[in-house]
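> call design_seq(struct)
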């Protein structure tokens, strides 16, 4: 099996489409690239787990993986999509920041990624928002960090704070890939933002993405010919190219 690579979908802000990115990109990794893929839901809201129908209401064991009280493979569940597994979130992750703070081991997630990567070529992390102990673990461990950015001043400011955080902690600034999301080219501010950063990938505002919560499926499963599906497919192809260059460098 090819070397495993990890991709975190992370933002300081909520409401920027982080979870839908994670689900759609995990689908692309499995269905488009044919990679054995794991989506690891780190957000206590468990939205990615819900969208991929992988939840277990009776389970509150997600945090126990980080305490090494349970092996991650015991919680991994297959999704309805061939090649895509899910490591579900649950309410126990509400205490994850406090756990990491008390643990004092900055590379716990990195080491766990090495373990789950033995069986999966691509591991995608749906991360909770905020600059927290959990986010520091993620930013330290992931090979690539996708940051969805809505074309607005506040969303761009949040990205700048993430970059500043990486610099302050001495983490890999080059591993961050900002992506404009929910773009409406009819809006002047959106067009201006795209002109300022013409090299950033762009995913348009789309009703198909909004339908994911009802259909509980990635866009590629029910709206494969939509502009959003095409943009997400192009984004994943760009991510694979970035990961491929990492492999050559390593």
């Amino acid at each position: 099996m090819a070397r495993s690579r990890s991709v975190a979908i992370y933002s300081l802000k909520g409401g920027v489409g982080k979870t839908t990115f994670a689900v759609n990109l995990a689908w692309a990794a499995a269905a488009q690239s044919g990679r054995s893929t794991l989506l690891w839901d780190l957000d206590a809201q468990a939205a990615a787990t819900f969208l991929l129908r992988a939840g277990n209401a009776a389970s509150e064991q997600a945090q126990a993986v980080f305490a090494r009280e349970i092996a991650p493979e015991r919680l991994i569940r297959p999704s309805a999509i061939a090649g895509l597994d899910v490591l579900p979130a649950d309410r126990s992750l509400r205490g994850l920041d406090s756990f990491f703070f008390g643990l004092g081991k900055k590379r716990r997630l990195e080491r766990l990624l090495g373990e789950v990567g033995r069986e999966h070529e691509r591991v995608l992390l749906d991360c909770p928002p905020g600059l927290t102990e959990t986010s520091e673990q993620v930013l330290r461990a992931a090979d690539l960090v996708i940051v969805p950015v809505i074309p607005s001043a506040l969303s761009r400011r949040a990205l700048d704070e993430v970059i500043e955080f990486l610099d302050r902690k001495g983490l890999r600034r080059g591993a961050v890939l900002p992506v404009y999301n929910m773009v409406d080219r009819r809006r002047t501010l959106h067009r201006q933002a795209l002109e300022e950063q013409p090299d950033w990938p762009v995913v348009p505002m789309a009703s198909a993405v909004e339908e994911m919560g009802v259909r509980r499926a990635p866009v590629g499963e029910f709206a494969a010919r939509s502009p959003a599906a095409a943009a997400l497919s192009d984004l994943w192809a760009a991510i694979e190219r970035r990961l491929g260059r990492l492999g050559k460098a390593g």
